[in-house]
Amino acid sequence: MTMKVSASVVALVSILLMLVPLAARADEFIVGDDQHWRFGLNYTAWAYEYTFVWNDTLVFKYDPPNGTNIPHNVVLFNNIHDYDACNINKSTLLANVTQGAGEGFRIRLLNLTPYYFACGIHEGFHCRNGTMKFTVITLD
Ligand SMILES: [Cu+2]
C-alpha cells in the first residue's frame, strides 16, 4: 500500500514537472520585430525564425492614419485557400487601422490550429503585393 501511494505521488509529481515549462512560458513577439507591421517586409520569413507555443502573444504595431502614412489593419483567414488568394472579403477583421497604436494590438495564441494572418488594406493589395501575410502553427 505504501509503495503504491509513493509510486502514484512520484507519477503525479513527474507529470506536474513536465507541465511546468509550458505553463510558465508566455513569450511575446512583436510582429516584424523593430520593423513592426509594414508594407514590404517578408512576414513569412519573419515567422520562420521563431517557434510559437500555446499561450504566447503576438503584438502587431503600426501607426494609425495621420494623413501621410500608409494605414494597416490585421485580418485572419479561416483556411489556407483564402489566405493564399488574399480573399479579404472572406477574412475576419481582428484589429482596425487605429488598434496598432501605442502598445499595439495583442493576440494570445490559444488555438492549436494554424493562424492565417494578413493585412486587409486595399482589398488585399498589402497581402498580395506587400507580403503582409504569414502563418503561425502553435505548438503545445
Ligand atoms: Cu497593410
Automatic annotation (TrEMBL):
This is Phytocyanin domain-containing protein. InterPro entries: Cupredoxin (IPR008972), Phytocyanin_dom (IPR003245). One of its GO terms (molecular function) is electron transfer activity. The lineage of its organism: Eukaryota, Viridiplantae, Streptophyta, Embryophyta, Tracheophyta. Residues 27-140 form the Phytocyanin domain. Keywords: Signal. It comes from the Eukaryota. Residues 1-26 form the signal peptide.
